[in-house]
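Support request, please re-run this one:
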Amino acid sequence: MAAAGGESSTTNVSDELFQNFYTEVKQIEKRDSVLTNKQQIDRLLRPGSSYFNLNPFEVLQIDPEATDDQLKKRFRALSILVHPDKNQDEQDRSQKAFEAVDKAYKLLLEPDQRKRALDVIHAGQEYVEHHVKEKKKQLKKDGKSLDMEEDNPEVFKQAVYKQTMKLFAELEIKRKEREAKDMHERKRAREEEIEVADKAKRDREWQKNFEETRDGRVDSWRTFQAKGKKSKEKKPRSFLKPPKVKMEQRE
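Re-run finished. Output below.
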């Protein structure tokens, strides 16, 4: 019974932390949603933004369970705030911030991409909850206090945030690795195609040259054969005539 009670207690704590987490997230979203245009641009371009901005819900500062209408309204409000036309003094930075907002919005418009992002967020939450649960089991087994840092909603929230960001980063790294591999394969296939095409071109040129010079080669061969026959023909034998002997005259 004690074990069952402990298990129930752990589950209740986890559920409570989960609800506190979402409550605080919504409070943060409400607070950040009134940031000035410069503050929003700074948020979207802060150090490490290439990984922070992989979470489209974080980019748009919107609840993962938001409706399509809420998503559209939030995108419109935020995109106007960071649009280059509204930030003439720093158009380059505002353009990058606007692109981040636009990319996140378009991603969430795709059902498959949105589901993928939600799956990552849920996986991050489940990982932290499982970690807390297992750690409390070990503490209980060791006869130690079940108090943990993650009992603090703020610490729990940060743990979920970090784990979620880590998962998004890992997926992005894997995506880039696949992209690099595919690019390498396409490059290698293209090089092979070029090599085959070059070989075929050389073969055609050789065949063309062979055909064009065939008559000349035949004539040369015939001339060579004719010369050979002449050299082999027997020349008539010539016999040496003995010198004439002058007869001596007697006086």
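Residues 187 and 193 are 10 Å apart (CA to CA). Residues 32-192 form one domain.
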